[in-house]
Design a protein that fits this description.
- The protein is an alpha/beta fold and 512 residues long.
- The chain has 16 helices and 18 strands.
- The protein has 3 domains: 118 residues, Lipoprotein like domain (Double Stranded RNA Binding Domain, 2-Layer Sandwich); 57 residues; 311 residues, pyruvate-formate lyase- activating enzyme.
- 40% of the residues lie in helices and 22% in strands.
- Helix 11 links the parallel strand 12 and strand 13.
Length: 512
Protein backbone atom coordinates (compact mmCIF):
# COMPACT_ATOMS: atom_id res chain seq x y z
CA UNK A 1 0.00 0.00 0.00
CA UNK A 2 1.27 3.48 -0.90
CA UNK A 3 0.03 6.77 0.53
CA UNK A 4 1.04 10.17 -0.88
CA UNK A 5 1.75 11.89 2.41
CA UNK A 6 1.57 11.51 6.18
CA UNK A 7 0.83 14.05 8.90
CA UNK A 8 1.90 13.16 12.45
CA UNK A 9 1.17 15.43 15.42
CA UNK A 10 4.63 14.88 16.90
CA UNK A 11 8.14 15.38 15.63
CA UNK A 12 9.72 13.50 18.53
CA UNK A 13 12.20 11.05 17.09
CA UNK A 14 10.98 8.08 19.12
CA UNK A 15 7.31 8.71 18.20
CA UNK A 16 8.18 8.99 14.51
CA UNK A 17 10.18 5.77 14.85
CA UNK A 18 7.44 3.68 16.46
CA UNK A 19 4.82 4.91 13.95
CA UNK A 20 7.10 4.00 11.06
CA UNK A 21 7.67 0.57 12.59
CA UNK A 22 3.94 -0.18 12.37
CA UNK A 23 3.66 1.22 8.83
CA UNK A 24 6.65 -0.85 7.71
CA UNK A 25 5.17 -3.91 9.38
CA UNK A 26 2.14 -3.64 7.11
CA UNK A 27 4.30 -2.55 4.12
CA UNK A 28 2.69 0.88 3.92
CA UNK A 29 4.90 3.31 1.97
CA UNK A 30 4.58 7.05 2.40
CA UNK A 31 5.34 9.18 -0.67
CA UNK A 32 7.46 8.06 -3.61
CA UNK A 33 10.11 5.43 -3.11
CA UNK A 34 13.61 6.87 -3.05
CA UNK A 35 16.74 5.62 -4.73
CA UNK A 36 19.03 4.48 -1.86
CA UNK A 37 22.05 6.16 -3.45
CA UNK A 38 20.75 9.41 -4.99
CA UNK A 39 17.77 9.84 -2.61
CA UNK A 40 15.76 10.93 -5.66
CA UNK A 41 12.19 9.64 -6.21
CA UNK A 42 11.86 6.41 -8.18
CA UNK A 43 9.06 5.90 -10.69
CA UNK A 44 5.87 4.77 -8.96
CA UNK A 45 4.34 1.57 -10.30
CA UNK A 46 0.62 2.20 -10.40
CA UNK A 47 -1.45 4.81 -8.54
CA UNK A 48 -1.36 5.67 -4.87
CA UNK A 49 -3.93 3.88 -2.72
CA UNK A 50 -4.68 6.88 -0.48
CA UNK A 51 -4.09 10.59 -0.67
CA UNK A 52 -3.06 11.08 2.97
CA UNK A 53 -2.92 9.58 6.43
CA UNK A 54 -3.19 11.89 9.45
CA UNK A 55 -2.13 10.28 12.75
CA UNK A 56 -2.88 12.10 15.98
CA UNK A 57 -1.94 10.73 19.40
CA UNK A 58 -3.15 12.39 22.59
CA UNK A 59 -1.97 11.39 26.05
CA UNK A 60 -4.11 11.50 29.15
CA UNK A 61 -1.46 12.03 31.79
CA UNK A 62 -2.03 10.23 35.08
CA UNK A 63 -0.26 7.65 37.20
CA UNK A 64 -1.25 5.09 34.58
CA UNK A 65 -1.27 6.81 31.18
CA UNK A 66 -3.89 6.47 28.47
CA UNK A 67 -3.19 7.07 24.79
CA UNK A 68 -5.96 8.05 22.39
CA UNK A 69 -5.18 7.68 18.69
CA UNK A 70 -7.15 9.19 15.85
CA UNK A 71 -6.39 8.36 12.23
CA UNK A 72 -7.86 10.23 9.28
CA UNK A 73 -7.48 8.44 5.96
CA UNK A 74 -8.14 10.67 2.96
CA UNK A 75 -9.07 8.91 -0.27
CA UNK A 76 -7.84 9.97 -3.69
CA UNK A 77 -11.20 11.64 -4.35
CA UNK A 78 -10.82 13.82 -1.25
CA UNK A 79 -13.30 12.01 1.00
CA UNK A 80 -12.10 11.13 4.50
CA UNK A 81 -12.60 8.34 7.00
CA UNK A 82 -11.95 8.88 10.71
CA UNK A 83 -10.92 5.98 12.97
CA UNK A 84 -10.17 5.92 16.70
CA UNK A 85 -8.45 3.57 19.11
CA UNK A 86 -7.43 3.91 22.76
CA UNK A 87 -5.58 1.82 25.32
CA UNK A 88 -4.37 2.24 28.90
CA UNK A 89 -0.99 1.47 30.44
CA UNK A 90 -0.25 -1.23 32.99
CA UNK A 91 1.44 0.71 35.77
CA UNK A 92 4.48 -1.59 35.96
CA UNK A 93 6.50 -0.28 33.02
CA UNK A 94 8.56 2.86 32.64
CA UNK A 95 6.19 5.75 32.02
CA UNK A 96 7.45 6.91 28.61
CA UNK A 97 8.12 3.35 27.44
CA UNK A 98 4.49 2.59 28.21
CA UNK A 99 3.30 5.58 26.18
CA UNK A 100 5.37 4.56 23.18
CA UNK A 101 4.06 0.99 23.42
CA UNK A 102 0.48 2.27 23.51
CA UNK A 103 1.05 4.46 20.43
CA UNK A 104 2.24 1.38 18.54
CA UNK A 105 -0.53 -0.82 19.92
CA UNK A 106 -3.28 1.66 19.01
CA UNK A 107 -2.04 2.12 15.44
CA UNK A 108 -1.50 -1.62 14.97
CA UNK A 109 -4.99 -2.53 16.19
CA UNK A 110 -6.64 0.30 14.28
CA UNK A 111 -5.02 -0.53 10.93
CA UNK A 112 -5.76 -4.22 11.33
CA UNK A 113 -9.40 -3.58 12.18
CA UNK A 114 -10.14 -0.91 9.58
CA UNK A 115 -7.94 -1.96 6.66
CA UNK A 116 -7.98 -5.72 7.11
CA UNK A 117 -4.26 -6.37 7.53
CA UNK A 118 -3.31 -9.83 8.75
CA UNK A 119 -1.91 -10.20 12.25
CA UNK A 120 1.90 -10.20 12.43
CA UNK A 121 3.36 -13.17 14.34
CA UNK A 122 5.25 -10.85 16.71
CA UNK A 123 2.60 -8.16 16.84
CA UNK A 124 4.26 -4.88 17.87
CA UNK A 125 7.36 -6.55 19.36
CA UNK A 126 9.84 -4.88 17.04
CA UNK A 127 12.89 -4.84 19.31
CA UNK A 128 15.99 -6.94 18.80
CA UNK A 129 15.69 -8.73 22.15
CA UNK A 130 12.05 -9.59 22.96
CA UNK A 131 13.06 -11.97 25.74
CA UNK A 132 14.21 -8.96 27.80
CA UNK A 133 10.54 -8.08 28.26
CA UNK A 134 9.91 -11.59 29.59
CA UNK A 135 12.82 -11.31 32.03
CA UNK A 136 11.31 -8.08 33.35
CA UNK A 137 8.05 -9.90 34.00
CA UNK A 138 9.85 -12.88 35.59
CA UNK A 139 11.79 -10.61 37.94
CA UNK A 140 8.49 -9.19 39.18
CA UNK A 141 7.33 -12.67 40.17
CA UNK A 142 4.88 -13.39 37.35
CA UNK A 143 4.29 -17.01 36.35
CA UNK A 144 4.52 -18.44 32.85
CA UNK A 145 0.84 -18.34 31.91
CA UNK A 146 0.42 -14.76 33.13
CA UNK A 147 3.41 -13.66 31.04
CA UNK A 148 2.11 -15.35 27.88
CA UNK A 149 -1.25 -13.69 28.42
CA UNK A 150 0.32 -10.24 28.76
CA UNK A 151 2.48 -10.66 25.67
CA UNK A 152 -0.61 -11.53 23.66
CA UNK A 153 -2.73 -8.71 25.04
CA UNK A 154 -0.21 -5.89 25.36
CA UNK A 155 2.06 -6.66 22.41
CA UNK A 156 -0.31 -8.62 20.12
CA UNK A 157 2.19 -11.48 19.83
CA UNK A 158 0.53 -14.70 18.74
CA UNK A 159 0.33 -17.66 21.12
CA UNK A 160 3.25 -19.51 19.55
CA UNK A 161 5.71 -16.60 19.75
CA UNK A 162 4.58 -15.58 23.24
CA UNK A 163 4.98 -19.16 24.49
CA UNK A 164 8.37 -19.70 22.81
CA UNK A 165 10.05 -16.62 24.27
CA UNK A 166 8.55 -17.16 27.71
CA UNK A 167 9.79 -20.75 27.87
CA UNK A 168 13.12 -19.59 26.44
CA UNK A 169 13.59 -16.92 29.11
CA UNK A 170 12.77 -19.43 31.85
CA UNK A 171 15.34 -21.81 30.34
CA UNK A 172 17.96 -19.04 30.45
CA UNK A 173 17.60 -18.30 34.16
CA UNK A 174 20.16 -20.85 35.43
CA UNK A 175 22.73 -19.54 32.93
CA UNK A 176 22.17 -15.91 33.85
CA UNK A 177 22.40 -16.78 37.55
CA UNK A 178 26.03 -17.80 37.04
CA UNK A 179 27.10 -14.16 36.63
CA UNK A 180 28.18 -11.79 39.36
CA UNK A 181 29.46 -8.21 39.14
CA UNK A 182 32.97 -9.34 38.17
CA UNK A 183 32.04 -12.03 35.68
CA UNK A 184 32.59 -10.98 32.06
CA UNK A 185 33.07 -12.39 28.57
CA UNK A 186 35.61 -11.47 25.91
CA UNK A 187 34.74 -11.03 22.23
CA UNK A 188 37.52 -11.13 19.63
CA UNK A 189 36.69 -9.71 16.19
CA UNK A 190 38.71 -10.87 13.19
CA UNK A 191 37.29 -8.75 10.36
CA UNK A 192 38.33 -10.83 7.35
CA UNK A 193 36.64 -13.22 4.93
CA UNK A 194 37.89 -15.09 1.88
CA UNK A 195 35.05 -13.56 -0.16
CA UNK A 196 31.94 -11.48 0.47
CA UNK A 197 28.62 -13.32 0.45
CA UNK A 198 25.71 -11.89 -1.51
CA UNK A 199 23.57 -11.06 1.54
CA UNK A 200 26.38 -9.83 3.77
CA UNK A 201 26.72 -6.32 5.11
CA UNK A 202 28.93 -7.45 7.97
CA UNK A 203 31.94 -5.23 8.52
CA UNK A 204 34.37 -7.76 7.08
CA UNK A 205 37.23 -7.14 4.71
CA UNK A 206 38.38 -9.54 2.02
CA UNK A 207 41.62 -11.00 3.37
CA UNK A 208 44.50 -8.56 2.67
CA UNK A 209 48.09 -9.41 1.85
CA UNK A 210 50.94 -9.81 4.31
CA UNK A 211 51.47 -6.06 4.80
CA UNK A 212 47.81 -5.48 5.70
CA UNK A 213 47.77 -8.48 8.03
CA UNK A 214 50.92 -7.34 9.80
CA UNK A 215 49.43 -3.87 10.34
CA UNK A 216 46.24 -5.41 11.70
CA UNK A 217 48.13 -7.71 14.05
CA UNK A 218 50.16 -4.83 15.43
CA UNK A 219 46.99 -2.95 16.38
CA UNK A 220 45.34 -6.18 17.56
CA UNK A 221 48.20 -6.97 19.97
CA UNK A 222 47.92 -3.52 21.51
CA UNK A 223 44.12 -3.86 21.79
CA UNK A 224 44.36 -7.28 23.40
CA UNK A 225 47.09 -6.23 25.84
CA UNK A 226 44.92 -3.32 26.98
CA UNK A 227 41.95 -5.61 27.67
CA UNK A 228 44.20 -8.08 29.48
CA UNK A 229 45.35 -5.22 31.70
CA UNK A 230 41.73 -4.21 32.42
CA UNK A 231 40.83 -7.78 33.37
CA UNK A 232 43.69 -7.85 35.85
CA UNK A 233 43.01 -4.32 37.14
CA UNK A 234 39.36 -5.00 37.98
CA UNK A 235 39.87 -8.64 38.99
CA UNK A 236 37.39 -9.80 36.36
CA UNK A 237 36.53 -13.48 35.91
CA UNK A 238 36.35 -14.39 32.20
CA UNK A 239 33.45 -16.77 31.72
CA UNK A 240 33.35 -17.06 27.90
CA UNK A 241 35.69 -16.28 25.02
CA UNK A 242 34.17 -15.84 21.57
CA UNK A 243 36.30 -15.42 18.45
CA UNK A 244 34.11 -14.17 15.61
CA UNK A 245 34.29 -11.94 12.59
CA UNK A 246 34.18 -12.05 9.60
CA UNK A 247 35.64 -15.51 9.45
CA UNK A 248 38.55 -15.91 11.88
CA UNK A 249 39.76 -19.05 10.12
CA UNK A 250 40.26 -17.04 6.92
CA UNK A 251 43.58 -15.95 8.47
CA UNK A 252 46.62 -17.83 7.13
CA UNK A 253 47.67 -20.67 9.43
CA UNK A 254 50.57 -18.83 11.09
CA UNK A 255 48.52 -15.68 11.76
CA UNK A 256 45.64 -17.74 13.09
CA UNK A 257 47.98 -19.62 15.41
CA UNK A 258 49.50 -16.41 16.75
CA UNK A 259 46.07 -14.78 17.25
CA UNK A 260 44.51 -17.73 19.05
CA UNK A 261 47.53 -18.32 21.29
CA UNK A 262 47.50 -14.64 22.28
CA UNK A 263 43.85 -14.95 23.23
CA UNK A 264 44.40 -18.21 25.11
CA UNK A 265 47.44 -16.97 27.03
CA UNK A 266 45.71 -13.73 27.98
CA UNK A 267 42.26 -14.90 29.07
CA UNK A 268 41.94 -18.68 29.41
CA UNK A 269 41.75 -19.82 33.03
CA UNK A 270 39.77 -22.06 35.36
CA UNK A 271 36.74 -19.74 35.23
CA UNK A 272 36.27 -20.13 31.46
CA UNK A 273 33.30 -22.38 30.68
CA UNK A 274 33.22 -21.84 26.92
CA UNK A 275 35.74 -20.96 24.19
CA UNK A 276 34.15 -20.51 20.76
CA UNK A 277 35.73 -20.02 17.35
CA UNK A 278 33.70 -19.26 14.24
CA UNK A 279 35.16 -21.41 11.46
CA UNK A 280 32.37 -20.43 9.11
CA UNK A 281 33.14 -22.20 5.86
CA UNK A 282 35.22 -25.21 4.87
CA UNK A 283 37.44 -23.35 2.39
CA UNK A 284 38.87 -21.42 5.35
CA UNK A 285 39.84 -24.47 7.42
CA UNK A 286 43.04 -26.52 7.58
CA UNK A 287 44.55 -29.28 9.69
CA UNK A 288 46.93 -26.73 11.22
CA UNK A 289 44.06 -24.52 12.38
CA UNK A 290 42.22 -27.49 13.83
CA UNK A 291 45.38 -28.46 15.75
CA UNK A 292 45.72 -24.88 17.04
CA UNK A 293 42.11 -24.92 18.28
CA UNK A 294 42.68 -28.22 20.08
CA UNK A 295 45.94 -26.96 21.62
CA UNK A 296 44.10 -23.86 22.89
CA UNK A 297 41.26 -25.87 24.48
CA UNK A 298 38.55 -24.51 22.17
CA UNK A 299 35.23 -26.04 23.27
CA UNK A 300 32.85 -24.84 20.55
CA UNK A 301 33.25 -24.31 16.80
CA UNK A 302 30.73 -22.83 14.37
CA UNK A 303 30.52 -24.44 10.94
CA UNK A 304 28.04 -22.37 8.96
CA UNK A 305 26.92 -23.67 5.57
CA UNK A 306 23.84 -21.31 5.41
CA UNK A 307 22.32 -23.79 2.94
CA UNK A 308 22.96 -27.37 1.93
CA UNK A 309 21.87 -26.67 -1.66
CA UNK A 310 24.76 -26.42 -4.12
CA UNK A 311 22.84 -24.07 -6.43
CA UNK A 312 22.32 -21.69 -3.50
CA UNK A 313 25.96 -21.77 -2.40
CA UNK A 314 26.98 -20.74 -5.90
CA UNK A 315 24.36 -18.00 -6.04
CA UNK A 316 25.37 -16.42 -2.72
CA UNK A 317 29.10 -16.49 -3.50
CA UNK A 318 30.29 -19.49 -1.49
CA UNK A 319 33.22 -21.17 -3.23
CA UNK A 320 32.89 -24.62 -1.73
CA UNK A 321 30.78 -27.74 -2.08
CA UNK A 322 28.20 -29.41 0.12
CA UNK A 323 30.58 -32.36 0.43
CA UNK A 324 33.24 -30.04 1.85
CA UNK A 325 30.82 -28.90 4.57
CA UNK A 326 30.17 -32.52 5.56
CA UNK A 327 33.90 -33.29 5.53
CA UNK A 328 34.63 -30.25 7.71
CA UNK A 329 31.96 -31.24 10.22
CA UNK A 330 33.24 -34.79 10.45
CA UNK A 331 36.84 -33.65 10.92
CA UNK A 332 35.77 -31.36 13.79
CA UNK A 333 33.80 -34.16 15.39
CA UNK A 334 36.49 -36.81 15.00
CA UNK A 335 39.11 -34.41 16.39
CA UNK A 336 37.09 -34.18 19.60
CA UNK A 337 35.73 -30.63 19.49
CA UNK A 338 33.13 -30.87 22.30
CA UNK A 339 30.35 -28.83 20.65
CA UNK A 340 29.67 -27.91 17.02
CA UNK A 341 27.21 -25.26 15.86
CA UNK A 342 25.76 -25.01 12.34
CA UNK A 343 23.85 -22.04 10.87
CA UNK A 344 21.35 -21.82 8.05
CA UNK A 345 19.54 -18.85 6.49
CA UNK A 346 15.90 -18.99 5.42
CA UNK A 347 14.67 -16.90 2.50
CA UNK A 348 17.78 -17.02 0.32
CA UNK A 349 17.32 -16.18 -3.38
CA UNK A 350 15.68 -18.92 -5.42
CA UNK A 351 15.14 -21.30 -2.50
CA UNK A 352 11.91 -23.18 -1.92
CA UNK A 353 10.30 -24.84 1.07
CA UNK A 354 11.49 -28.17 -0.34
CA UNK A 355 15.08 -26.85 -0.38
CA UNK A 356 14.84 -25.92 3.31
CA UNK A 357 13.40 -29.33 4.09
CA UNK A 358 16.35 -30.99 2.34
CA UNK A 359 18.88 -28.71 4.07
CA UNK A 360 17.46 -29.47 7.51
CA UNK A 361 17.35 -33.19 6.76
CA UNK A 362 21.07 -33.10 5.89
CA UNK A 363 21.93 -31.01 8.94
CA UNK A 364 20.19 -33.16 11.54
CA UNK A 365 21.70 -36.27 9.95
CA UNK A 366 25.13 -34.88 10.86
CA UNK A 367 23.99 -34.27 14.44
CA UNK A 368 25.38 -30.86 15.38
CA UNK A 369 24.96 -29.89 19.02
CA UNK A 370 23.54 -26.47 18.17
CA UNK A 371 21.62 -25.25 15.10
CA UNK A 372 20.97 -21.56 14.50
CA UNK A 373 18.14 -20.66 12.14
CA UNK A 374 18.45 -17.21 10.61
CA UNK A 375 15.82 -15.39 8.59
CA UNK A 376 17.28 -13.39 5.72
CA UNK A 377 17.51 -9.68 6.51
CA UNK A 378 17.97 -7.27 3.62
CA UNK A 379 20.93 -5.30 4.88
CA UNK A 380 21.89 -1.89 3.58
CA UNK A 381 25.20 -2.18 1.77
CA UNK A 382 24.85 -5.84 0.83
CA UNK A 383 25.10 -6.78 -2.84
CA UNK A 384 21.67 -8.37 -2.54
CA UNK A 385 20.05 -5.16 -1.26
CA UNK A 386 21.79 -3.02 -3.89
CA UNK A 387 20.73 -5.31 -6.74
CA UNK A 388 17.40 -6.60 -5.43
CA UNK A 389 15.68 -6.66 -8.82
CA UNK A 390 18.21 -9.23 -10.06
CA UNK A 391 17.08 -11.88 -7.56
CA UNK A 392 13.91 -13.80 -6.86
CA UNK A 393 13.25 -13.89 -3.13
CA UNK A 394 10.63 -16.07 -1.43
CA UNK A 395 7.61 -14.06 -0.26
CA UNK A 396 6.67 -13.65 3.41
CA UNK A 397 4.20 -16.53 3.39
CA UNK A 398 6.80 -18.89 1.89
CA UNK A 399 9.41 -17.77 4.45
CA UNK A 400 7.01 -18.55 7.29
CA UNK A 401 6.43 -22.02 5.84
CA UNK A 402 10.21 -22.45 5.64
CA UNK A 403 10.49 -21.48 9.29
CA UNK A 404 7.77 -23.96 10.28
CA UNK A 405 9.55 -26.74 8.38
CA UNK A 406 12.90 -25.91 9.98
CA UNK A 407 11.43 -25.76 13.48
CA UNK A 408 9.67 -29.07 12.86
CA UNK A 409 13.08 -30.71 12.46
CA UNK A 410 14.30 -28.89 15.57
CA UNK A 411 11.54 -30.24 17.80
CA UNK A 412 11.58 -33.73 16.26
CA UNK A 413 15.30 -34.13 16.87
CA UNK A 414 15.45 -33.03 20.50
CA UNK A 415 16.71 -29.46 20.06
CA UNK A 416 15.21 -26.64 22.10
CA UNK A 417 15.28 -22.89 21.37
CA UNK A 418 17.47 -21.10 23.93
CA UNK A 419 18.20 -17.62 22.52
CA UNK A 420 16.58 -15.38 19.95
CA UNK A 421 16.95 -12.00 18.32
CA UNK A 422 15.19 -10.03 15.63
CA UNK A 423 16.37 -7.58 12.97
CA UNK A 424 14.71 -5.02 10.76
CA UNK A 425 13.38 -6.06 7.36
CA UNK A 426 13.53 -9.78 8.06
CA UNK A 427 11.91 -12.15 5.60
CA UNK A 428 8.46 -13.19 6.78
CA UNK A 429 8.77 -10.89 9.82
CA UNK A 430 10.41 -13.81 11.57
CA UNK A 431 13.46 -14.11 13.83
CA UNK A 432 16.88 -15.66 14.32
CA UNK A 433 16.76 -18.46 16.85
CA UNK A 434 19.47 -20.63 18.36
CA UNK A 435 18.49 -24.20 19.23
CA UNK A 436 20.57 -26.73 21.13
CA UNK A 437 20.40 -30.15 22.67
CA UNK A 438 19.95 -29.74 26.45
CA UNK A 439 23.38 -29.11 27.95
CA UNK A 440 24.89 -27.74 24.72
CA UNK A 441 23.54 -24.20 25.02
CA UNK A 442 26.10 -21.46 24.37
CA UNK A 443 26.66 -19.35 27.48
CA UNK A 444 28.05 -16.48 25.40
CA UNK A 445 25.00 -16.37 23.11
CA UNK A 446 22.67 -16.11 26.09
CA UNK A 447 24.76 -13.42 27.77
CA UNK A 448 25.20 -11.25 24.66
CA UNK A 449 21.51 -11.39 23.79
CA UNK A 450 20.21 -10.71 27.29
CA UNK A 451 22.85 -8.02 27.96
CA UNK A 452 23.31 -9.43 31.45
CA UNK A 453 27.08 -9.11 31.79
CA UNK A 454 29.96 -6.93 30.61
CA UNK A 455 31.52 -8.08 27.36
CA UNK A 456 34.87 -6.60 26.36
CA UNK A 457 35.51 -6.44 22.61
CA UNK A 458 38.90 -6.71 20.93
CA UNK A 459 39.68 -6.38 17.22
CA UNK A 460 38.10 -4.98 14.11
CA UNK A 461 34.46 -3.91 14.49
CA UNK A 462 34.33 -5.38 18.00
CA UNK A 463 31.89 -3.86 20.49
CA UNK A 464 32.43 -3.58 24.23
CA UNK A 465 29.18 -3.66 26.24
CA UNK A 466 29.80 -2.49 29.77
CA UNK A 467 27.17 -2.96 32.47
CA UNK A 468 26.91 -0.42 35.27
CA UNK A 469 25.13 -2.46 37.94
CA UNK A 470 24.76 0.51 40.29
CA UNK A 471 22.82 2.55 37.75
CA UNK A 472 21.26 -0.38 35.90
CA UNK A 473 22.61 0.94 32.60
CA UNK A 474 24.61 -0.42 29.68
CA UNK A 475 27.05 1.65 27.64
CA UNK A 476 28.82 0.53 24.48
CA UNK A 477 32.15 1.31 22.87
CA UNK A 478 32.62 0.50 19.20
CA UNK A 479 35.84 -0.27 17.36
CA UNK A 480 35.89 0.94 13.75
CA UNK A 481 34.29 -1.18 11.06
CA UNK A 482 36.91 -0.50 8.41
CA UNK A 483 40.44 -1.77 8.81
CA UNK A 484 42.28 1.47 8.06
CA UNK A 485 40.40 3.41 10.74
CA UNK A 486 40.77 0.63 13.33
CA UNK A 487 44.54 0.58 12.87
CA UNK A 488 44.85 4.37 12.83
CA UNK A 489 42.65 5.06 15.87
CA UNK A 490 43.37 2.05 18.07
CA UNK A 491 44.55 4.24 20.96
CA UNK A 492 41.24 6.14 20.93
CA UNK A 493 39.23 2.92 21.17
CA UNK A 494 41.37 1.66 24.02
CA UNK A 495 40.87 4.95 25.92
CA UNK A 496 37.09 5.03 25.35
CA UNK A 497 36.71 1.46 26.65
CA UNK A 498 38.88 2.28 29.68
CA UNK A 499 36.77 5.34 30.53
CA UNK A 500 33.54 3.35 30.40
CA UNK A 501 35.02 0.73 32.72
CA UNK A 502 36.00 3.46 35.20
CA UNK A 503 32.46 4.83 35.13
CA UNK A 504 30.92 1.41 35.73
CA UNK A 505 33.38 -0.13 38.20
CA UNK A 506 35.14 2.83 39.77
CA UNK A 507 38.74 3.94 39.45
CA UNK A 508 41.15 1.28 40.61
CA UNK A 509 44.69 2.05 41.75
CA UNK A 510 47.16 0.69 39.20
CA UNK A 511 49.02 -1.08 42.01
CA UNK A 512 45.94 -2.86 43.38
Amino acid sequence: MRIKRMVLNSDQEVVVKVVKEVLNLFKISIGPLLDPDTKKPLPVDGPYDWEAIDIENSIEASEIPEVHTRVILTALDGTSNVFRQENSGTGDERYMAGIHRLIKLNLYQLLRRELGFEAAPWGIMHGVRPTKIVHRFLSSGMDRDAIVKRLKEEYEANDEKASVITDMAIRQLPFLARTDDRTISVYVGIPFCLSRCLYCSFPANVLPGRKGLDEFMEAFRKDLAAVKQEVERYNFKVQSIYVGGGTPTSLPDNYFEEMLNLVYDSFYNEDVVEFTVEAGRPDSMSEAKLKTMLDCSVTRVSCNPQSMQQKTLKRIGRNHTIEAVVEMFKSLRSAGIPEINMDIILGLPGETVADVDDTMKKLVALGPDDITIHSLALKKGSRLKLNLSDYELPDDDTCRKMFDVAMGYIWENGYKPYYLYRQGYMSGQMENVGCAHPGAESMYNIQIMEEHQTILGIGGSATSKIINKREGRLKSSFNAKDLVTYIRDIDLYIEKRSQLLKEAYGIVDQED
